[in-house]
Design brief:
about 600 residues; 6-stranded mixed sheet; 5-stranded mixed sheet
């Protein structure tokens, strides 16, 4: 076989391939050449109690500087995955005899075996990635990393369901969701038999309030525990991050932890992914603590970098279509909602004080006099409640005592008056406490809004030229459109989504000149999606023919004797006077950009 050159990746990440089978004693790497080891590998793959995926690399003639860099692959797979390197030939034939048909490895190939055993009946759940040429290596490794990521996310979700009692099989009772208590951490269920039960946050999805998952009037089922009066509901299975969120799509994520340079964003309960400051801002002076809030629900873009899922907030607009988050309880609501954030530290402490076991929120810093006043008020409330409890008990004892004298009864009456006064003070203090909570919530909402605006200004900087760099507006537009394409299309997609051929209509440049800078930037993004055929984002813009009239069956606007049709797609959504892009599909295959118009303008 002729020698094969080393295949390297020029994506800025570590090279996926380099020296091949010189395997060191790295953790989670197992190299086997003995045919007897095939039985051990088969036992590992068929073990129903296996918790983590296994990747098997079979090799045939890749030697020296050829093939897969197994050390690099192992580091990308991570510590939760075992990598087996086996030789093609007697070993793979022995392994094939021990596995179901179409689930073996052979030749130069990679295969991911999920922890679940669904692949035994459906081999397509464990696809084989053949490495016929060095050019196949990068693509196959990207697919393997994606397969592994899906396996791990499903495994984490399965463990989460077991830990929270999600597997319901017997003693099922049903009812309707009524009120929510304790800041949404408890749901009151009216059971069909007339009884009452509670669904608790910590037994469902501890990360978020129960009110985020259920809706009033919803029918739920679960196992009822009479000792705790609790109904434990089943959680739905997860389809996996890649299956639910296509590459390039927008998703909602929950900020679960944060430092100056990195935050963890949860897309599914139990499945969080890193977000760095470079993914949020182009300003070197920024930190994530300036831009994000713990417990905030934000919009992120799903990107793939060499098979790895990557999150970014650059080039994200609040009015773009977001893929709805998954529903976690049958008949419930998506578990995340934009603008609905977890409570701050002060709010969480109040909830814990008012209701035992209500479930804490994610801490943030409030840093205001109102926070101090709220803590002082809570301490005073607790002291008042304790004193009232003591007085109530003393009053009951006095009234039950058969030997009490008129003097004692007079003292009891005086204590009753004191108790009534303290209860009035407690009511006033609790009202003040609620006012402070509301003020702190408003301040945190305003802070989150200001941080969103700051993120937007940071991510937008540098996307187009600050001042004209060309003598004509058309030349400047072509330059800015190219920069928008560079920013919009991920590095791994640029080869398959180049900026297509186009021409500028007479009114296109003047229509852009009428737009504010933010709307012009959105228009350029829409043009990039159109010209590069960036499928996911383009379909979200709902491209459709422009009709002669508003009637649904009216003919499409045409020209050139019917050879060219006019089309329309969304530049922005959910905004006042939302903009639309009009363009022509020309007979010579080019796109002619016609105009950027407001929604109500139907002229071509």
């Amino acid at each position: 076989m002729p020698a094969r050159r080393r295949h390297r990746v020029s994506s800025g990440a570590r090279a996926i391939t380099s020296p091949s089978l010189m395997v060191k004693d790295l953790p989670r790497i197992r190299r086997s050449v003995d045919v007897a080891d095939a039985r051990e590998l088969a036992e590992v793959l068929l073990d129903p109690d296996r918790q983590d995926p296994v990747v098997v690399l079979s090799t045939q003639q890749f030697t020296g500087d050829e093939g897969v860099d197994v050390e690099d692959l192992a580091s990308m797979l991570g510590e939760d995955v075992t990598l087996w390197i086996v030789p093609n030939g007697p070993f793979t034939m022995a392994l094939a005899d021990l596995l179901p048909p179409r689930t073996q490895v052979f030749s130069d190939a990679l295969r991911v075996y999920p922890a679940h055993l669904g692949w035994l009946d459906d081999p397509y759940q464990s696809p084989l990635h053949l490495l016929r040429t060095p050019a196949d290596i990068r693509t196959s490794i990207e697919l393997v990393l994606r397969d592994v990521e899906e396996c791990l996310s499903l495994t984490r979700w399965g463990k989460h369901k077991e830990q929270t009692g999600g597997m319901v099989t017997t003693a099922v009772r049903s009812g309707l969701v009524g009120a929510f208590l304790a800041e949404g951490s408890r749901a009151v269920i009216a059971l069909d038999d007339g009884g009452r039960a509670l669904i608790r946050q910590e037994s469902l999805v501890p990360e978020v309030p129960t009110s985020w998952l259920l809706s009033p009037g919803q029918r739920v089922s679960g196992v009822f525990d009479p000792a705790t009066n609790e109904l434990r509901c089943a959680l739905l299975g997860a389809s996996g991050v890649a299956a639910h969120y296509p590459d390039g799509s927008l998703a909602l994520g929950l900020v679960t932890s944060m430092s100056a340079s990195r935050a963890d964003i949860m897309l599914f309960p139990g499945a969080a992914f890193p977000l760095t400051v470079a993914d949020v801002s182009t300003n070197d002076m920024d930190t994530l603590e300036d831009l994000l809030t713990l417990g905030e629900v934000l919009i992120v873009r799903i990107d793939r970098d060499a098979g790895r899922l990557r999150l970014t907030m650059l080039d994200v607009d609040d009015d773009e279509r977001v893929v709805p988050p998954p529903v976690l309880v049958a008949g419930g609501t998506p578990w995340l909602e934009y603008g609905r954030n977890l409570p701050s530290a002060s709010e969480a402490r109040t909830q814990e004080t008012d209701t035992a076991g209500a479930g804490a929120g994610v801490p943030t810093s409030v840093g205001s006099d109102r926070g101090t006043a709220l803590r002082d008020t809570q301490i005073a409330l607790e002291a008042a409640r304790a004193e009232i409890g003591i007085l109530r008990e003393e009053r009951l004892q006095l009234r039950r005592d058969p030997l009490n004298s008129p003097t004692i009864r007079t003292q009891a009456d005086a204590d009753s008056q004191l108790l009534a006064g303290l209860e009035d003070e407690l009511i006033r203090a609790e009202r003040y406490n609620q006012q402070l909570q509301g003020q702190i919530k408003d301040l945190n909402d305003k802070l989150s809004g200001l941080r969103r605006k700051l993120r937007s200004s940071r991510s937008d900087s540098g996307k187009t030229s600050a001042s004209p760099a060309f003598l004509t507006a058309a030349a400047q537009l072509e330059h800015d459109l190219y920069l928008a394409w560079v920013e919009r299309i991920p590095a791994t997609e640029k080869a398959t989504h180049p900026l297509g051929r186009y021409r500028l209509g007479q009114e296109f440049v003047p229509s852009l000149a009428l737009l504010a800078s933010d709307k012009r930037r959105k228009a350029l993004k829409a043009v990039v999606d159109l010209l590069s055929a960036f499928d996911g984002p383009l379909q979200a813009r709902d491209p459709h023919p422009l009709r002669v009239s508003s009637a649904g069956d009216s003919p499409t606007v045409m020209r050139a004797g019917g050879a060219e049709s006019c089309w329309r797609l969304s530049v922005e959504q959910g905004a006042e006077a939302a903009r639309r892009l009009h363009y022509w599909r020309c007979a010579d295959g080019l796109i002619e950009l016609s105009r950027v118009v407001v929604h109500e303008d139907f002229r071509p």
